Amino acid sequence: MLQQEGANTHGHSELVEITEDSAIIRDEYGVRKELDADTIVSANLVSNNDMVDEIKEVCDDVQVIGDAQAVSRLQKAVVDGYKLGVSI
């Protein structure tokens, strides 16, 4: 989606530093690159469900969807949320 709006993307890279007008990344080969940027979106493809166990301690019915369940596409998370909402 960001690419459709003209944004440059750099997958398989680590965000090392953000300056006033650039982002410094380390690409998949370990090469540091400074990229001119006025806006930066950093997304990690890692599932994060750290709070699920805590919530389960106080709630009987907990449903995990989206990236908390498994890293996937936005459309899948929306569909999962819709299906869960309809089932309630």
From TrEMBL:
<dbReference type="InterPro" id="IPR036188">
    <property type="entry name" value="FAD/NAD-bd_sf"/>
</dbReference>
<protein>
    <submittedName>
        <fullName>Uncharacterized protein</fullName>
    </submittedName>
</protein>
